[in-house]
């Protein structure tokens, strides 16, 4: 029996380089916000949860004493550790594991940052409880992830194309769902903002090595979507589109 964690690992075990080189993952206005938050609170130890290609780690390593780059996929962790050494960041520790089971002592981190990772987690409620546990008192959790939609038509369309592109996709949660997760885990909601992310179709599918038949299915669904859906996601002739991204800061 294949678990969701195994599906995730199988999907990403050979894609670390693609994520390292991904312009979408390497850029974003959220990096400046992260650095500003860390410096304002003088955070020393940060967990990059679901580090992927390591872009959060590289951005914040100069601002803190230690970053733990943590990911379910071993090759991602190895890549980030290697890249950090090459970039002169000797305060980066790589560790493999799942978001739902953080092998750290209580109150180990001043700040936890997760960027474009939560939509792969098998159990967000459990992961949020674990994050709360490992955060120090007055610590902050920063969540950056693509938003789902409260409208069922929009939501079904988006979750479907995400899953066809990447079978390890679990769910893009709506803002209402994120508010529920935060409050259930015991967090105080400090900041909620929305950003826009433009996704170029060819690189979006190539990064995941999406098979040709799956790419054709996504294009079919895009073309058959209602005018409202096409306009909301700004679907272009070549399949490129835009999605909403959540920037959320929670406090313990």
- Terminus-to-terminus distance: 37 Å
Residue windows where pLDDT falls under 50 for at least 5 positions = 9-16, 18-23
Please identify the structural class as seen in this structure. Answer: alpha/beta
**How many β-strand stretches?**
7
CATH architecture heading: 3-Layer(aba) Sandwich
Query: In the CATH hierarchy, what is the superfamily?
Result: Vaccinia Virus protein VP39
CATH topology name: Rossmann fold
From the spread of the alpha carbons, the general shape counts as globular
The number of helical elements comes to 12
GO molecular function: methyltransferase activity
Domain Methyltransferase type: 47-143
Pfam families: Methyltransf_11
Keywords: Methyltransferase, Transferase
Word description of this protein:
One of its GO terms (biological process) is methylation. InterPro entries: Methyltransf_11, SAM-dependent_MTases_sf. It holds the Pfam family Methyltransf_11. Residues 47-143 form the Methyltransferase type domain. There is one protein chain. The protein has 252 residues and is of the alpha/beta class. The chain has a single domain, classed as Rossmann fold (3-Layer(aba) Sandwich). The chain contains 12 helices and 7 strands. It has a 7-stranded mixed sheet with strand order 3-2-1-4-5-7-6. The termini are far apart.
Task: Please outline what is shown here.
This protein is an alpha/beta fold and 252 residues long.
């Amino acid at each position: 029996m294949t678990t969701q964690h195994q599906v995730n690992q199988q999907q990403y075990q050979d894609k670390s380089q693609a994520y390292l080189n991904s312009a979408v993952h390497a850029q974003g206005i959220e990096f400046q916000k992260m650095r500003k938050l860390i410096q304002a609170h003088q955070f020393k130890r940060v967990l990059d949860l679901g580090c992927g290609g390591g872009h959060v780690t590289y951005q914040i390593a100069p601002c803190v004493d230690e970053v733990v780059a943590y990911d379910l996929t071993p090759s991602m962790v190895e890549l980030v550790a290697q890249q950090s050494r090459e970039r002169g960041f000797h305060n980066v520790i790589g560790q493999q594991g799942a978001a739902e089971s953080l092998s750290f002592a209580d109150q180990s981190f001043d700040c936890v940052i997760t960027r474009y990772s939560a939509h792969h987690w098998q159990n967000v409620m459990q992961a949020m409880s674990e994050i709360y546990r490992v955060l120090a008192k007055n610590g902050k959790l920063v969540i950056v992830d693509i938003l789902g939609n409260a409208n069922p038509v929009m939501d079904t369309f988006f979750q479907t194309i995400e899953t066809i592109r990447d079978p390890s996709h679990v769910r893009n949660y709506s803002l209402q769902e994120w508010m529920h997760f935060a409050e259930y885990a015991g967090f105080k909601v400090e900041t909620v903002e929305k950003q826009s992310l433009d996704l170029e179709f060819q690189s979006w599918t190539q990064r995941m090595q999406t098979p040709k038949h799956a790419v054709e299915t996504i294009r079919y669904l895009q073309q058959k979507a209602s005018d409202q859906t096409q306009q909301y996601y700004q679907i272009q002739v070549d399949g490129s589109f835009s999605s909403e991204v959540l920037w959320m800061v929670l406090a313990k």
